[in-house]
Design brief:
AMP-bd_C_sf, ANL_N_sf, GMP Synthetase, Chain A, domain 3, binds adenosine monophosphate, ten-stranded mixed beta sheet, Luciferase, domain 3
């Protein structure tokens, strides 16, 4: 176990040990060394404290993937605050809901995102607004502010393991995103496990493919910076273009890659990987959804050298089980990879609906206890009540909602979900949140959303809508409305406008009939 108990001290320690190593780089753009990043985040801290941020407060970030976003994260942590990253690509209204829900003290954003956010927030919350087109956006903004209203240098706050480090919002079944609250201790337990299991090196170059509001980013940012390695930031656009992405992975000599299987499949199918030299690549991690074996085989046939790891876990626990896909893995006998064994010192158990432990090989819900497990959902006591199971000894176990089977050699095998959550391109989507958004449209009387498995995309999302009397809605209008109300990965693939939704004999929406086409 590391003796460091706060995330900011990981950066501070690396800045002392490896001051001249490149900490963060943008392909084709700027890089910063450890000492530069540490110093820049000190200045962000000073400014945030000047703006009123105190230990235990929240700082919101609505920024594109950038060196400025990394400096803001560390600035907020050094000020003793928790950071709350929101998607720059999602509608401003959703971002505003999140930032208001956890009552951020300050928002850091970019000029092009500012006005819609101010309007959606509906208040005059203090903001730091960067000009993303400037050559050194954060430095320039801080220098300018320093001239007009100097912020005094302050000491970093020595946060402890129980302080909140970040809040990640995930799709919520009742219609609004819910905030998963994670402490420094939660994050460090996972980061320390990564250090022990994967032995990262200072000459590694880690990909940062996942957006910062997605929990895959925790491994990218902190494991990389803890070890004096380089974090290679992959922006939203580059991240989705397989040809350019493949070229960037090779040119940037990325040695540790981490993404959802969807992105790896995209690379294997459309990235023309054989054109490049990936000699530096030594570890590939994938997480967030099932990786179909044929897709994995296509990738492994081209990237033959790296070690491959399937990492599993909800945002609420970060990665909590792992499985190395060794070259002798009996892939012929598997339909998907096992999710493997629990990450120590966490504990796992598989239970039936009564909470009793099932026998080996029997399906049941995976429960997880230990230092990785979140502190709870922000301001949702009812959800917190339901999220945990109390065992005979009074210990609390997080209910993952995932059905698994335990097998003697490999550990857990993922079977499926217990509820209406689906994964799309690795993102968590509660079908109920889409329904709630559709029902907010004044012309919608009833709406129901189903997910149909699809070999190419994982799932296709179908929305059925019935209009209020005297109104009509076209599919185009519904699509346009959804783009305003939902993040891109939640917009249904197909809309059907129907006179009324089919009902079961007990008058519930007949989801089975909708799944078979309505
Ligand atoms: P998120 O909170 O976005 O990380 O989503 C968590 C959910 O994604 C889990 O509860 C699982 O249903 C699914 N998931 C995460 N990792 C894996 C994996 N390696 N294999 C299969 N499903 C996964």
């Amino acid at each position: 176990m590391s003796t460091v108990r706060s995330l900011a001290s990981l950066l501070e320690r690396s800045a002392r040990e490896f001051p001249e190593n490149i900490a963060v780089t943008v392909p084709g753009g700027r890089s910063v060394t450890y000492s530069e990043l540490c110093e820049l985040s000190d200045r962000v801290r000073d400014r945030l404290v000047h703006m009123g941020v105190r230990r235990g407060d929240r700082v919101g970030l609505r920024l594109h993937k950038s060196i400025e976003a990394v400096a803001t994260i560390f600035g907020a942590l050094k000020a003793g605050a928790a950071y709350v990253p929101v998607d720059a690509e999602s509608p401003a209204a959703r971002a505003a809901y999140i930032l208001n829900d956890c009552d951020v003290k300050v928002v850091v954003t970019e000029r092009e995102l500012e006005s819609e956010l101010v309007q959606a927030l509906g208040d005059t919350r203090p903001m730091l607004v960067l000009d993303a087109t400037a050559s050194r956006p954060m430095e320039e903004l801080l220098e300018q502010l320093q001239r007009s209203e100097p912020a005094a240098p302050v000491e970093s706050i020595a946060t402890g393991a129980d302080d909140i480090a970040y809040i990640l919002y995930t799709s919520g079944s009742t219609g609004n995103p819910k905030g998963v609250v994670l402490s420094h201790g939660n994050a460090l337990s996972f980061i320390d496990w990564c250090s022990e299991t994967f032995a990262p090196r200072a000459d590694d170059r880690f990909s940062s493919h996942a957006p910062f509001h997605f929990d895959l980013s925790i491994l990218d940012i902190y494991v990389s910076l803890k070890h004096g390695a380089t974090l290679v930031l992959i922006g939203e656009a580059l991240g989705k273009e397989p040809l350019k992405l493949a070229a960037a992975i090779a040119a940037e000599r990325i040695s540790v890659w981490y993404s959802t299987p969807s992105i790896l499949s995209l690379l294997a199918n459309y990235g023309k990987l054989a054109k490049h030299d990936f000699a530096a690549l030594r570890m590939v991690f994938f997480a967030g959804e099932v990786f179909p074996i044929p897709q994995y085989r296509a990738l492994q046939a081209i990237w033959t050298r790296p070690r491959y790891f399937n990492l599993y876990g909800p945002t609420e626990t970060n990665v909590c089980t792992w499985y190395e896909v060794t070259s002798d893995a009996p892939l012929d006998r598997m339909s998907t990879f096992p999710i493997g064994k629990i990450c120590p010192p966490n504990l796992g158990r598989v239970v039936n609906e009564q909470g009793e432990i099932v026998s080996i090989g029997e399906p049941g819900e995976l429960l997880v206890a230990g230092p990785n497990v979140m502190r709870g959902y922000w301001n949702l006591p009812d959800h917190n009540e339901r999220a945990f199971f109390k065992d005979e000894a009074g210990a609390l176990w997080y209910r993952t909602g995932d059905i698994v089977c335990e097998e003697p050699e490999v550990g857990y095998r993922y079977v499926g979900r217990r509820d209406r959550m689906v994964k799309r391109r690795g993102y968590r989507v509660e079908l109920g949140e889409i329904e709630a958004a559709l029902l907010r449209h004044p012309d919608v009387r009833e709406g129901a959303v189903v997910a149909i498995p699809n070999p190419e995309e994982g799932v296709r999302i179908l929305a059925f809508v019935a209009c209020q009397d005297g109104t009509t809605l076209t599919r185009i209008a519904l699509k346009a409305y959804s783009a305003q109300a939902l993040p891109p990965y939640m917009i249904p693939d197909i809309f059907a406008v129907v006179p009324a939704l089919p009902r079961t004999s007990t008058d519930k929406i007949d989801y089975q009939r909708l799944k078979s086409g309505g």
